[in-house]
Fold this sequence. Notes:
Radius of gyration: 21 Å
Number of strands: 11
Helix content: 10-25%
Structural class: alpha+beta
Number of helices: 4
Mean pLDDT: 92
Largest sheet: 8 strands, mixed
Amino acid sequence: MEIEKLAKRLSNRTPVILGSERFSKFAILLPLVEINNEVHVLFEVRSLTMRRQPGEVCFPGGRIDPEDRDEEHTAIRETSEELGVNEDSITDVSPLDYMISFGQIIYPYAGIIHNPDQIKPNPDEVEEVFTVPLSFLKKVKPEMYHVNFKVEPEENFPFDLIAGGENYNWQARKVEEVFYYFKDKVIWGLTARILKHFLEIITEDFEESKSV
């Protein structure tokens, strides 16, 4: 029967995020390096000649290319290109939770870069790099703010087709923004959200290990 064919077709599907085929997809690496026997997190400052977000603090990463094996490979490849290191020097790459933001899917990873003294940033993309001791980041409390978004339907929106019309009760939207400060550097936006998520993961793991 037709209904059974329909049910079989649905049963064989693997669900994805609705509409994700139209999303831009990016992968990012949160780099860990060892300096004087202490773990640091490495950050980039975007080149001042970049068209988008010049001078902002970020992690290495970029758009997923069709030739990339997977999201992890994108994160490693982009890090290699931006920091001038061999892909083989990037190890122990592990996934963090992926994020959806304004039509984009971001796949963050954490990984170790060996021999950080050999890093040679690509000047076309990176103004400078700096590191922050992990011990500092684990102790500092970030500042939290919210950005509110106002719903503005386009001019020809068909209000007459929806219940409530022009008085429809649109749900307010807001985004939490995180700020970390280190010396003269400000870490915020997507980079700070990924950093906060990473710090929460390693703190939870440490607390769980103590309770065992």
